[in-house]
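> forwarded from #structure-qc
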């Protein structure tokens, strides 16, 4: 089954992972800006990272017929540094008009601190003012419920915000109801250690239905599994759910959410199934046939 992974950090993955994902049926993905595993020291470091997200990663994905989209922001963890965050926020608008950039994300909270909340609100204000979609990171484990509640309360301070264009990610059983009932999209992240398992995600589908519900791998540099969405597909089939319901969650719902972005251009299922360059960065045919050429280019 063809699917779209709405949240995956391919800068942390090898080119072999792109090939594996294509073989598993992945035809599209979106990659939010996130923490690199260490705190960056300057806004210029973020500018280079944003260039990687909007230039190189779409080309790597294109070698295997996967359409790659991205989000730009200062992430929740590094938002603790308010001065640096504001310098990064000044950079964001110059990337938002690039093809394939879907909006501002993943913003949110990490440890639910005052500084994180300040920078979260400033980025929501930026996105609302520029008419951008928003992808939100909710905290891990013991900080999850409080952080999600704080995020929903802060979003309520923006009455003009279109909730249908906001995705609150990493929901779990104790947070998904409030996110959906307040009108936002909810993302279920499948992690091998924290967050959610495929079976628990199926439970939530059975309780709340497929409306405004997404499932993603959030594959990154830590313990994670980039092929987690196919695991969810299998878990749904084991429960006897119809292919139409599975397809809605893993393909049609991401399309419906992303199509609200002016920069989202999807070639369609048939075109995405065959190797093609990313819609953002033209790639010559030789690149599509021989992706290892990049390795020799480095040398």
């Amino acid at each position: 089954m063809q699917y779209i992974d709405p949240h995956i950090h391919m800068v942390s993955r090898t080119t072999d992972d792109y090939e594996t994902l294509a073989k598993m049926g992945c035809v599209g993905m979106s990659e939010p800006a996130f923490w690199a595993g260490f705190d960056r020291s300057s806004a210029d470091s973020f500018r280079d990272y944003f260039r990687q997200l909007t230039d190189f990663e779409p080309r790597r994905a294109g070698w295997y017929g996967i359409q790659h989209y991205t989000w730009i922001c200062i992430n929740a963890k590094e938002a603790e540094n308010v001065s640096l965050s504001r310098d990064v926020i000044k950079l964001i608008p110059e990337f938002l008009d690039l093809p394939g950039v879907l909006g501002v994300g993943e913003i949110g909270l990490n440890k639910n601190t005052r500084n994180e909340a300040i920078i979260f609100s400033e980025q929501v204000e930026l996105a609302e003012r520029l008419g951008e979609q928003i992808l939100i990171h909710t905290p891990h484990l013991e900080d999850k419920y409080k952080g999600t509640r704080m995020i929903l309360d802060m979003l309520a301070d923006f009455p003009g915000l279109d909730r249908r264009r906001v995705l609150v990610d990493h929901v779990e059983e104790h947070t998904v109801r409030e996110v959906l009932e307040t009108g936002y999209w909810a993302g279920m992240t499948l992690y091998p250690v924290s967050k959610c398992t495929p079976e628990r995600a199926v439970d939530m589908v059975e309780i709340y239905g497929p409306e405004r519900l997404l499932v993603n791998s959030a594959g990154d540099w830590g313990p994670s599994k980039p092929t987690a969405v196919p695991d969810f597909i299998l878990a749904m089939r084991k429960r006897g759910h119809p292919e139409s319901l599975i397809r809605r969650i893993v393909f049609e719902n991401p399309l419906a959410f992303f199509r609200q972005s002016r920069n989202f251009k999807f070639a369609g299922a048939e075109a995405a199934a065959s190797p093609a360059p990313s819609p953002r960065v033209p790639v010559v045919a030789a690149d599509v046939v021989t992706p290892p050429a990049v390795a020799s280019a480095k040398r």
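QC bot note: The longest strand covers residues 101-108. The beta strands are 3-5, 26-31, 67-72, 101-108, 133-137, 166-168, 185-189, 213-216.
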